[in-house]
């Protein structure tokens, strides 16, 4: 994601747009899985690294360095056998995204992976977000994970490894070249 974002910055600055205008318009979308703390750290690490990349392009506005993140609950870990368990999974995934500071969130209905969603399942998905906002007050705290040794340490570990991967992609000619060569697919 960071390599592709950097590719957009390169392509658009070469066409005469300013980094400040470009970076503030880019929105990243990340799926959020069931590994609660890892997902929090993943989004926090992405924000830190994106700010570093945007600064390297010479932005003059601090707001341009802020990564705009949309999160979506994942599909790969949902069950067909006890579908209501998916409500618990999407709730914890949503909490991870919110605590990590996602700007927007899509909660997939609990039955979306195995059948056509219903009015009931869509209502529950909306209510999960409202529950986290209005009953857990997660919208009232600026950074609920700040100061947590475990999350901070995990975040810095991801930053370190992700930055090495980013530099490797750049050394291989950037995101487009790596996709064409199959490097990205092999790494995934």
Folded structure, characterized:
- 29% of the residues are buried.
- A three-stranded parallel β-sheet has the order 1-2-3.
- Helix 1 runs parallel beside helix 3 (36-56) and helix 3 (36-56) packs across helix 6 (149-171).
- The protein has eight helices and three strands, in the order H-H-E-H-E-H-E-H-H-H-H.
- The protein has 188 residues and is mostly helical.
- Helices cover 56% and strands 8% of the residues.
- It has helices at 2-14, 19-23, 36-56, 85-100, 119-134, 149-171, 175-181, 183-187; strands at residues 27-32, 68-73, 104-106.
State the gist of this model.
This protein has 188 residues and is mainly alpha-helical.
Summed over residues and divided by their number, the pLDDT gives a mean of 94
- Low-pLDDT stretches are none
Shape: globular
Let me know the largest β-sheet: 3 strands, parallel
Strand tally is 3
Radius of gyration: 18 Å
Number of helices: 8
